[in-house]
Amino acid sequence: MPHLPDLDKNSLGKPDQWAKFRGLAWWQLVLSITPALLLPIGGAIGGAIGAAGVFVNLSLARKPFGAPVKVLAMLGVVLASCLGYFLVAGLVLNVFGG
Q: What is the pTM for the complete model shown?
């Protein structure tokens, strides 16, 4: 059996930080990265929630679902990320006054 290269490592043996994005369709990339748009809007809170949304969408993009199910699920994650940000930001503002 031939030895298959480890695609998660580059030629120097270091982890490939872009491996999770390789092989996805353009629409999967767009929907995966969309939650990261919370970073410039919401700072650290938006960045944390957006990063979680990106990782969830990357996981969903690799699942063996049909394209319509993936689109709906990934859009749901984008919506949940936005709602989660506004909920957490609202709670922070109410607790600390603002």
A: 0.79
